[in-house]
Amino acid sequence: MKILAAFDKFKDSMTAQAACEAASAGVHLALGQNASITQAPLTDGGEGFCTILTHAANGYVESHEVCGPLGADLKAPLGWVNGSALPAAVRALFDPRHGKIAIIEMAAAAGLEQVAPERRHPKYCTTYGVGELIRIAVAEGADAILLGIGGSATSDLGLGALEALGLRLVDSNNKRIERIIPSRWPEVAQLSGDIAVPLPPIYIACDVDNPLLGPRGAAAVYGPQKGLPADEVEAFDDAAADLAAKLCQHFNQPQNLHELPGSGAAGGIGFGLKVACNAEFIAGFELVTAWLDLDAKIAAADLILTGEGKIDSSSLSGKGPVALVTA
Question: Which of 80, 151, 200, 295 would bridge with 107, disulfide CB 3.0–4.6 Å?
């Protein structure tokens, strides 16, 4: 009997890899060491995205010190894979014909798990560290960058990341506002400067189709789980609309880009990177399925062991364990 262990993370308990290893150990304990079991840890673009995809493609992971969501430095992974090592199905989803592909995990540099529950509030969190990882990837010769944006603590439109890449935000006295966070958005009079480094193609793995603003936007839908009180959602959304307009104007982009499906994901970082860096969205779970060759592994298995931290209504969206059992 061929067994497939394909678990997603168990939040605040086990990583996806640890869950797969625990299941494998249990199978070997019950059936003996010769039992045939394949491990395929899952990721939704959040925790584990970098290491899972990098190791699956026989790449390597570096660790870099970058700015965390609250401003304190932390260590975050940066994965490297060769495009030639990727399955053909992945090449159909984006263009990895270039040699070096850098894999960045937003959750590691600006993730909710990096912030203690009592300190969670998107007004005080930044994506600056994500921008630093992009800058490092460029300096180390990335020909393409793949960014997983699940599990974020932020809702800063990606302005922190863009600041790390060279964008300047100034107040009415033409004084630079450094390490911008949403609580300081009212001080921003204008944007100046540009992205300071030539960027390779940036691809954002995302399964969310929410727009940036409005009742289905970043603040209304995802703000509360990041610590945004319900009575602050409308004001936060209004402030985001103002900054989004400034950002589009500065980079000569259409003012309606905030309506783009996915622009509300991860606090709008996809919106910011689309406006300033022409980043492209790709379907996250479809990418992971192709990258890990899950269809073939499912077809070859007689028994699938799967799960995640909590099975609820959000699990029915067609990703992770539910997608496996309906495949």
Answer: 151
